[in-house]
Known about the structure:
- The protein has helices at residues 11-18, 26-35, 37-58, 63-74, 122-126, 143-153; strands spanning 82-85, 131-135, 160-164.
- By secondary structure, the chain is mainly alpha-helical.
- The chain folds into 2 domains: 1-58; 59-165, no CATH class.
- A 3-stranded mixed beta sheet has the order 1-2-3, covered by helices on one side.
- Strand 2, helix 6 and strand 3 form a beta-alpha-beta unit.
- The radius of gyration is 30 Å and the shape is rod-shaped.
- It starts with 10 loop residues before the first helix and ends with a strand.
Amino acid sequence: MPNVPRYRVDFARLALLLLPSLLRRPRLLALCQWLLTPVATLYARFISYEAYVRRELSYNSQVLLFEEALNDHYDAAVRRIYITNTDVELQPVYVNFVAENQPNPALYFVAENQPPVYLFNWVEFSQQADFIVHAPAILRPKASQLHAAIKRLKLANKHYLLVFF
């Protein structure tokens, strides 16, 4: 199925077969082929559009295909765009009321050599990225196009961060 057109039409042969055998003269055949030229042009555009749609539909949110899609569109020659997963996930710290009978986090002085407790804003939790797309700095003018392509290909509940290097 790859690279094989599903819809094969030979318009020169079609013009020949549609003419009755008594009318198959070179001039009339040339006229019929000339009349079918716009249809043949439209057919060629359709075949190229079909190949484009099949290629676009082959991409999905799997990391390798995601990278391939972004590199095909924006960095086809060098293929420098890559995706990394973020392994840091911020853990919320809850401070409870005494009536809730839940343990509160222990806070220590620096001199006590205990692991630090970090407090974050809600904004920092809501802006956590599930993956990071690394793109070369030369693509910075196309950042809005990159964002649109990433949003089209990523899963709906995943957040990303676009970093230029």
